[in-house]
Amino acid sequence: MSSILRGESRRINNKQRARHHLTPQKRQEIKEAFELFDTDGSGTIDAKELNVAMRALGFEMTEEQIEQMI
Q: How far apart are CA 45 and CA 52, in angstroms?
């Protein structure tokens, strides 16, 4: 019985991985978008950079909303 459950668990994990798989092209697009908004080149997006990114996407957010996202 436990081997059946382990097999089922592996099958579910494989499905989850497949959903999150990104092609190299998509990874590059995400990296470029991140770098566009990481204006100080720190490798992270701070509250100010996130606010700029959200505004560029058409979202006006309060400082509190931005802080909650971080």
A: 10
What's the confidence (pLDDT) of residue 68? 94
Taking the whole predicted model, whether its pTM rises above 0.90 is answered as no
Instruction: Provide CB contacts within 8 A for 22, sequence distance 6+.
Output: 30
What distance in Å separates the CA atoms of residue 56 and residue 3, rounded to the nearest whole number? 50
CA distance 56 to 49: 11
As a whole number of angstroms, the distance between CA 15 and CA 21 comes to: 10
Asked if the structure places residue 14 within a domain, the reply is no
Q: How many domains does the chain have?
A: 1
- The string of pLDDT tens digits covering residues 11-63 is 666 666 566 788 999 999 999 999 999 999 999 999 999 999 999 999 999 99
d(CA 56, CA 14): 35
